[in-house]
Design a protein that fits this description.
The protein is an alpha/beta fold. 43% of the residues lie in helices and 24% in strands. The protein contains eleven helices and 15 strands. Strands 2-1-4-5-6-7 form a six-stranded antiparallel β-sheet, covered by helices on one side. Strands 8-12-13-3-14-15 form a six-stranded mixed β-sheet, with helices on both faces. A hairpin with a 2-residue loop joins strand 14 and strand 15. Helix 3 crosses helix 4, helix 4 crosses helix 5 and helix 5 packs across helix 9. The two termini are 25 Å apart. The mean pLDDT is 92.
């Protein structure tokens, strides 16, 4: 899988540009605030229909413009697929093969992307929200139906929290609607949890050996799921649902007292152990970075095993954050099999033949030129 070309119109600081890419490695070089990350963001958005930097689409549209457009041609299973995203004040349109997709779950998965940026180094030491986003985005790529259940869950969760606030403030006393919303929440929560368990089992298969290799066989990585209900990965969908029913029944008074939903996938977390110790709390910065790198490299292999092709890799200003050994391990792993985009202020000091053979693009103030 690779992206052959991209066209941007009124997107961030790009008026109109059209680029063709190498199917191996593309390096985007430029000073800060010139547009390197904006190009990475456009490719990411073409895959996920949303930015990794902001939840507000209007920030992506140039000032005084009505809309922004991203078009790209991808090659997947030796076939060309045109993709198009249009962002406007009225909303968002996603087109696959020139046909508008009514549901995002029908679009997501057409282009598989793995992004590794400096903020991903916070995957281990950052907030639980960062780790939940990581797992949601990656499952959604290989199981688009997950996106549907996640959207429905978030919709019901918002309604349920609003009702719990009303019950807390005695604006509402009848609990009938609470029970209806709880049943709806459990239906989607159980599906999300079952699919998260399934994904983590696959992720461990790849992340463990990769981490051992990067750590020169000195460290063993474990990825654990910290759920807000008492469940295990061995449970089926019905058993998980029953555990949720028991949990919500037991905490009903507490939820009303606090005016919010206290259990569910939105409260869960991932825990990473290296040699039996919680790396978030007790790990060194090097161990935390190795864990984050291992997870990202595991994503690449996991997607390949599930969809039959390697995803596109976006390395956004992250190489300078890694030491020489981790840099070398990363570049060696992707060599010859993953179309990769590397953004950086300079490749000086990065001695690896992968970059020497790459297509070089120079970015300056919203314009891009190919280095001959």
């Amino acid at each position: 899988m690779y992206i052959k070309d991209i066209k941007l119109r009124s997107f961030r600081n790009y008026d109109r540009i059209q680029l063709e890419f190498d199917d191996k490695v593309n390096v985007i070089i430029g000073e800060n605030a010139q547009g390197k990350t904006n190009l990475m963001e456009a490719i990411y958005l073409l895959a996920f229909t949303k930015s990794h930097r902001t939840p507000r689409d209007k920030e992506l549209i140039q000032w005084d413009e009505e809309y922004a457009k991203i078009e790209g041609s991808i090659y997947k299973r030796n076939r060309r697929f045109p993709l198009e995203i249009i962002l406007s004040k009225k909303g968002k349109k996603a087109k696959l093969n020139h046909l508008e997709q009514k549901r995002l779950s029908d679009y997501i998965g057409a282009l598989n992307v793995v992004m590794f940026a400096p903020e991903d180094l916070n995957l281990v030491k950052g907030s639980p929200q960062v780790r939940r986003r990581f797992i949601d985005m990656e499952i959604g790529q290989i199981q688009p139906a997950y996106i549907y259940h996640l959207g429905q869950y978030q919709k019901v969760l918002k309604q349920r929290n609003h009702l719990l606030k009303d019950l807390q403030r005695h604006r509402q006393t009848d609990k009938t609607m609470l029970y209806v919303l709880t049943d709806q929440l459990i239906e989607h929560a159980s599906t999300l949890l079952e699919r998260r368990f399934r994904f983590l089992k696959l992720l461990r298969n790849w992340a463990g050996p990769i981490h051992e290799s990067i750590s020169r066989q000195l460290e063993k990585l474990e990825v654990l799921y910290d759920a807000s209900v008492e469940v295990s990965e061995a449970m089926d969908l019905e058993t998980i649902s029953n555990r949720y029913q028991e949990k919500f029944s037991n905490i009903e008074d507490k939820e009303i007292d606090r005016g919010t939903t206290l259990a569910g996938p939105h409260r869960d977390d991932l825990i990473f152990h290296v040699n039996g110790k919680d790396v978030q709390t007790y790990g060194s910065q090097g161990q935390q970075r190795t864990t984050a790198l291992s997870l990202k490299l595991a994503e690449i292999e996991l997607i390949h095993s599930e969809v039959g092709e390697y995803p596109i890799l976006l390395l956004d200003d992250v190489l300078s954050e890694l030491d020489d050994f981790r840099q070398s391990h990363l570049l060696h792993t992707i060599q010859g099999k993953v179309q990769t985009f590397v953004s950086t202020t300079s490749i000086d000091g990065i001695e690896h033949h992968v970059l020497k053979e790459a297509e070089i693009f120079r970015v300056k103030n919203g314009t891009i030129e190919i280095q001959k």
